Amino acid sequence: MKAYMTNGTGDFLTKLAEKHPQIDIHIMSSGAGSLAYYEGVEKKLFVAGRTYEVIVQKGDIKEEGFVAMNNIPVTEEGRPVFEDRFKNRKHEVDQFSGFQAFRLLRPLTGNTYVVFTQWESEVDYDNWVNSDTFKQSHAESPTKPSAYFADNPFLTTYYMKKDDE
């Protein structure tokens, strides 16, 4: 399955979603701007967007919630190790309070994977990140992350944009 995303103004992205009501486009916003995301459809709507392959999927993306995207540049030779690490995780995240959805997204161009998680609230996300379960799941890696990171990972966060916003 493919996933697509692009950045833009909230108004522009909302109008784009309205032009394609048959596609479930999720609009998210942050202090830095807005993002549109959809998956499963083989039709690329975004001219300047990014396309990903969904490697791991848990839960359904909801219309409300908080989204954290860990953007992780991975070296070419590190891709199999990186993906294997996620495929073989115990996935405790989907049992954590407030969890809604998880996606591991492989870029079709470039080297930056996206680890997409959606939560009922930012507090739920913070509780996960500060939990012993999170610390244990990130400590169990047999390979140090720096062995396959091409650059420093970075986090982007969003709130799902409601139709009336």
How would you explain this protein's 3D organization?
GO terms for molecular function: monooxygenase activity. Residues 66-159 form the ABM domain. It is globular, with a radius of gyration of 16 Å. By secondary structure, the chain is of the alpha+beta class. The chain has helices at 10-19, 79-87, 122-129, 132-139; strands at residues 2-8, 26-30, 33-39, 50-59, 66-73, 99-107, 112-119, 154-160. A hairpin with a 4-residue loop joins β6 and β7. The chain has an 8-stranded antiparallel β-barrel with strand order 1-3-2-8-5-7-6-4. The chain is 21% helix and 37% strand. The protein has one domain: Alpha-Beta Plaits, CATH 3.30.70.100. The protein contains 4 helices and 8 strands.
Topology:
Elements: E1 2-8, H1 10-19, E2 26-30, E3 33-39, E4 50-59, E5 66-73, H2 79-87, E6 99-107, E7 112-119, H3 122-129, H4 132-139, E8 154-160
Antiparallel strand pairs: 1-3, 1-4, 2-3, 2-8, 4-6, 5-7, 5-8, 6-7
InterPro entries: ABM_dom (IPR007138), Dimeric_a/b-barrel (IPR011008), Heme-degrading_MO (IPR050404)
Protein name: Antibiotic biosynthesis monooxygenase
Keywords: Monooxygenase, Oxidoreductase
